[in-house]
Amino acid sequence: MKTRQAAILVLFLSLSIAAILSNCSSLPENEPNANSTGDSIISHLDLLVDTDPEQCIAVISNLFEQQREKNQSFDNSIIGEKGIVLFRKAVENIGLLFKKAIASQDILTARRLSFSADALVQYVSFYDSLGEIVSEELSMIASPAMRLQLALWEAENKFKEYGYVIGKATLSKAHLGEQEEYSFNKIEDFSIENLKTLIETRDPKEYFITWAERAKENNDVNAEAWFESLSSGRMSYSPSILVSDQDWLADAVSSVVTVYVDRGFKVEGGYSVPDRVLGTAFQISEGLYLTNYHVVQSEIDPTYKGYSRISIRPSDNPQIRVPSKVLGWDEELDLALIQSAEHARSTVMLPPPGMRFHAGDRVFAVGSPIGLENSITAGVVSSLSRKIISFGEAAQIDVPVNQGNSGSPLFSENGVLVGMVFAGLPSFQNINFALPVQWISLSLPDLFERKEVIHARLGLMMGKGSGQSPLVLADLDPSLSAFIAGDTLTSINGKLTKDIASIQFQLASVPKGALCFLEAQRDFKPVRRLRQISHTDGASLIPAWDRIHKNSILEGLFGARLTQLKESTKVGGLYSIQWVCPAEPADEIGLSENDVITVYKFRLDEKNKVFILEFSAKSRLSGYFERTIHLEFSTESATII
Fold first, then answer.
1. Residue 20 has what pLDDT?
2. Residue 521 φ/ψ, nearest 5 degrees
3. Which of 63, 237, 493, 574 satisfies CB 3.0 to 4.6 Å to 565 for a cystine?
């Protein structure tokens, strides 16, 4: 747990700014493929239109939007009338590939294409010249009704392969992905009969009745109520008041095991001492347990070269150790799924969508602090939405947490699982953190794929702003570079953007490679783009260092839009500040619009995983008093969507 604690401290005390009296700072514009000729672009698109029509559409729509922003016709783009021809063909290919995926029962590809079609339909609705390209068939592929049918189909397959828990989790994730309350009960534009021309359909209500029966068989009271409400079309489901007749706290204790990772010996003070990691896990299905990634990291981290053996200790027989193995893991959400021949006496059911907890709610954690099995601690939720992890958000709790509590389930007063303990700050009293259950639900289906969970992103580095929609700080896509620092992101796929965590939550349900429709504002003018969710570098900015202009990374870290006063292909020299993002480093050190800085050094220290910036500034807010400033930024960013 020490590694996670150190990471939290870095996030809380994020910037170290050494201001030394003396002497001022940097960025050129994003680099589109300005040197590409029309013929070379057309040649590239001719290949993409059949092999990757979604990327082809993203590139062409980017060219279209560049023309619109200059108040020019789409036909006047660098590829001329060929753009409309290729756009039409790529759209048609999405429909053909969808049918092919359905015929081969490739549900993942079909889901991706349905999401892409939805983004495409939203985009073309702004333009009469493109609207006629979208057929009624493509609109059916794009509909929520189609995605519901695909979700039900996928859930049935998961149920047959893995059992009840993963089947239910698949439906929960699909529901959360629509991000509209009661989305499974919405009236659709297309009936089941319409969809039968593309896919074998079944009345969703019949599915939900079947799932309600399965939930009852598994004593999953909340899920039973949820599925019954869906099957009847009711809008009144409240998991917070549904509990079983059993003693939930006793069941919670008997569902928890101690995770024991033997890492051999380590040398301390010239002596060999045992190297052990203790944590907690809770059973979600027979022999399957959830815990934290950092507890079992040595089992799966390719950079760890030492000895590592994982086992679990049952709560009712802590003297034995049963060998276990890691099936899947999610480093960014600090989750891991482990399997063991040991079956706990009880199982913790993840609640269906709708479970939320609030600041002030009383919560209970069950775990093994410093190896003391069956320990129950209690406290309250101190605050929600702490952005202290790179993907998602954490709830702050004052429940006592010690080494060994990592992975402890967190329950509400009536026994509903609301989260998982993952970190604490030992130097501060009662400041601890838990991962809310909705984030666990989003990751769970992928954990069963028996590999690392990778959260794909759009490749935009964001700033928090000041109570408004998130602000773009840097575009990490080297091919499109469609957004610039200061753009206000207003919606993704037609859903309003609230904050960085809510955007990540929405995108977590979008299949990798799917198109998303992004809307933003720049100088009170609309910016629209179709963009694939294909950025797989996670929170790390290191891969971008050699892939995009270093000035873009500087803007993203600094939180300002910069103009390099002397044109150069290298970073450094004089820069004029065009815009400053609230609550970002440039703002916190007192820089403002039209200030000039001189950048002396901006480099990557890959060994220590930091970017180092040295610059001097004469800012208006400091009375033009010249300062030389040294900043260090982590190479991991929690604001990439």
1. 29
2. -125, 135
3. 574
